[in-house]
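Bench notes, afternoon.
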Amino acid sequence: MIGREADLRRIGDALVRARAIFAEYTAGEVSHRRKAGGDPVTEADLRVNQALHECLPAAGDGWLSEETADDAARLACRRVWVVDPLDGTREFVDGLPEWCVSIALVEDGRAVAGGICNPMTDETVLGSRETGVMLNGRPVRTREIASLAKAEILASRSEVRRGEWRPDAAAPFRVRPLGSVAYKLSLVAAGLADATWTLVPKHEWDVAAGAALVLAAGGAVWIPGGDEPSFNRSEPRLTGLVAAPPALVEPIRSYLAARPAVPRSR
């Protein structure tokens, strides 16, 4: 426990450092460029990435980040930091309060601790499997809900815009579009939403911290096929992810199994 508390202090201090950098920028008034795949990146992404790399890994720890060239040496490390310095860069550029800093600690392939901070909403969710989860210092857990009827499901704003949630128009739950997937997962962990799932693949840095927090808050996380995700893999990409309170696991599995697929546009 002492070691895990030290990990959480390290994550918390790193989030404070990241917030200080973001305080120098105004969301919605930030210049950006396009990376090779077309995603935006800002100076803030890179500065926060450097700051986190300086303060998180200890000797022998591995590192995996969206903004750092991948080093296969991480595969031999028992402990790996999986980081997205700015998840939701599009929202940051557009001035929407739906972006965050995402930090996960992975041990032996399991996401065991994490911290997610949204500076615009002043929400910091921090926790581990051993200690539970705190929202701004207050203990929280996933919601106690046993039915999808009237549940609030957080959906990817991009997926909704592309029409990929059209089959859910008549669903018994309410769909709330939101930006960053890491931020969505933190809201589920904190009991501020009922569940979330993604209909497209995600990289480990997108979801590792959120997965750690949902699991630490008493919830369940699984990938298509039903297994809990493992992390620090040679190809750090998941085919999808679902996060929910325990009582919603079977209702969501049944719903998604019967849900018609939407043809992907080219």
